Write the structure tokens for this entry.
Amino acid sequence: MISVIETVGRSALNSSRSFRQTATFTARILLRLFALRTYNSASRTVFINQFYFTAVQILPLFLIVAVIFGSLVNGMAFQAIKDLGLSDYLGRLLMGFVVTEVSPFVTVLLIALRSSSAINAEIAVMKVNHELYTLESFGIDTLDYLFVPRILSGMLTMVFLSSLFALVVLAVGLLVSSVIFGTGVDAYLDTLLRSASVLDMILVLLKSATFGFFITLIPIGQGLNASEDLTSVPVAVLNGMVKVFLAIVIIEVLSSVVRFI
Amino acid sequence: MQQGLGEFIAAHRGRVGLVSLTAPLISNLSVWGNIALVPQYHQNKPEREARAETLGLLGRFGMEQVAERRNAGLTAEERFCTMLLRAAMVANAVLVLDRPFSILTTVRAGHSLADALRKVDDLIAETHIFDYSWETERYGGLDVAAD
């Protein structure tokens, strides 16, 4: 019985320590995000490279996934709407569900799988190789040079790719709705515009940016937790990816609470 | 020796250009990227300008052709020269060579070191070498004062 209590207590302490570390790191990054001195030629180079790796290199795969996903979701949803005689709700389904919920969620999963794991491994390897010490010895602040540009790039990437995903799915929706309902372009656009809400759009952009912030911040934080031992790299990546997944779920739940309650 | 090195670096913080195995090249940056990092970060020098300057400096060592290579693709001598140039990029640099023969592992290492230091002499304010006393003979070409 005592060992069970000890285990629960240890687990609670570890979770609380981990949460505190993440919260402190978040506060430090947020402060630097708004500090002018963070932005110099070196951090701009890191930002551009990171944006290229995260947002541009993934485009072919991302567009294919968006088209396939858009066809499936739209096909199934539109057919169900037609069968149930709810065609008046087509716009609300597209704008309220596909654009605001599905697009950021699928995008964040793809980006987390591809880039969060890479960032996590990169930082852990830099720690193991003493490259972080190199930066320190040359007076280069790792927050300014390594972390803030990556996090900013993660935020912009998420906003950009979520919007692109939504546009592709809506374009596919036009094709599907013209096949199922015989809707023309004007009628389709009119339906979408009537269902669009500015508040929803702001919320979805904020949600995407928040996703981007945490799916880069957490891997960086976990990468820093690696020791000087090579075997600590996979452990750091594993822990980081689990926490990234938890963060995605928490943000999704919180955004739904804000939107629907 | 390590304690002495640590104290020296702390005393000259902000001016130290460290050449040491404990401060390796950044593996996800090219040779020119490693050298240009210091002026890009500290002087906000635009990337294109920093690259041009770096290529000019690499020319002193006949190393322009390795400018795009990364750490893993360099010979010991190329790696040493890259580290040396990176250290020389620090403004008013106090160059600190920490056991240079652990990086320069070739037989002619002593001559290579003397040659390399001569080529960056105009960029450096002071040079300090930290090494074990039994390595003194290997610095034949250099005027070394042992502490």
In short: Chain A has one domain: 43-260. Chain A touches chain B through 21 residues (CB under 8 Å). The radius of gyration of chain A is 21 Å.
